[in-house]
Amino acid sequence: MKIKAAVLGASAAAAPYGTSRPLEIAEVELDGPGEGEVLVHIRAAGLCHSDLSVIDGNRPRPLPMVLGHEASGTIEEVGPGVTDFRPGDHVVTTFVPSCGHCGPCSDGRPALCEPGFASNSVGTLLSGARRLHRSGRDLHHHLGVSAFAEYATVSQHSLVRVDDSLSFEEAAVFGCAVITGTGSVINTAQLGVGRRVAVIGLGGVGLAALLGAVYRESSIIVALDLSAAKLELARRLGATHTFNASDPHVVDAVREATHGGVDFAFEMAGAMQAMELAYQITRRGGTTITAGLPHPRVAFTVPHVSIVAEERTIKGSYLGSCVPSRDIPRYIQWYQEGKLPVDRLLAGTMRLEDINAGFDLLAQGEALRQTVLT
């Protein structure tokens, strides 16, 4: 079938993207679902820094590629061997397809699925197939999804069925921002009640982590960012203290406000300076967790002795250490119960044709979760 999609032909385009237009809205060909695959009518897709990092070259990916990984929609058609979905189901995409059989999947860690990582790295579906084409040339899939399009063919292992009472705009944000941010608090940190927490980087993922800390009844929640508007929003969402991360005295200020540092610092900006700040404000015996994704060549160094003498822990969190089929429905339930107000992260909708200008707003830190409606 022929569909409209946002195709990235080359990375590292000059900003503003509204002028350079790195994403071309083009007619492409989409194959129907093969074995174990599903055709999804994409209804809403969020603009995320993981997409922006491919556009600006910080996350090298094989090109040309149809971007987009955080999405919701309805099942249009199921391929052979698919028994868990049927046409009309409302679904949310996840950006790591999990095979269910490799070592990490067998250990209950589907975010680390080895075949899923391999297929994401080379721009295919979990099966190894590429279902997108243009002018006789294959297009690559972004994280097994490619949601900046009217339709997407994806592995059944990239989908979670969700409550159809949610709007598509609401549902989409659970596929990345919430599962990554809130999941880092609930699963990676296994945060207990009354702990002292800091979140560095208040994009959609960072604010979802903050909401998770509020849900876990943290005694102190410190929010750090460069944007005054985002710091104000963080206060409204439950932060007890806010600081501009560029303040040269911010480390001392946070350590004073938290009586020596936080138990858990969550780095969500994907920048070396943010990671260094997160480590510096973590107390002795505390844990520094990062879900940020900097360029692969960026390195973070720490004094070796502090890890030992202060019993410090540094952890990564990918996909929020989540089991998507378990966690997305329960996070949605918390949202419906008023305990996780993720709708406060939504920053408005746009047409697919306006997506380049939307990435300008994201790059400038002026928007949270913008959503393309198709």
Uncertain runs are: none
Radius of gyration: 20 Å
Largest sheet: 7 strands, mixed
- Tally of helical runs: 13
Report mean pLDDT, rounded to a whole number: 97
Summed up, the domain count is: 2
Report the end-to-end length measured between terminal Cα atoms.
16 Å
Shape: globular
Which terms summarize this structure?
single chain, 374 residues, alpha/beta, Quinone Oxidoreductase, Chain A, domain 1, Rossmann fold, 7-stranded mixed β-sheet, 6-stranded parallel β-sheet, 13 helices, 18 strands
Give a written overview of the molecule.
The longest helix is centred in the C-terminal third of the chain and has 13 residues, at 324-336. Strands 3, 5, 6, 9, 10, 17 and 18 form a seven-stranded mixed beta sheet that branches. α7 links the parallel β11 (196-200) and β12. The chain contains 13 helices and 18 strands. It folds into two domains: 2-175 and 341-373, Quinone Oxidoreductase, Chain A, domain 1 (Alpha-Beta Complex); 179-317, Rossmann fold (3-Layer(aba) Sandwich). The chain is 29% helix and 27% strand. It is of the alpha/beta class and 374 residues long.
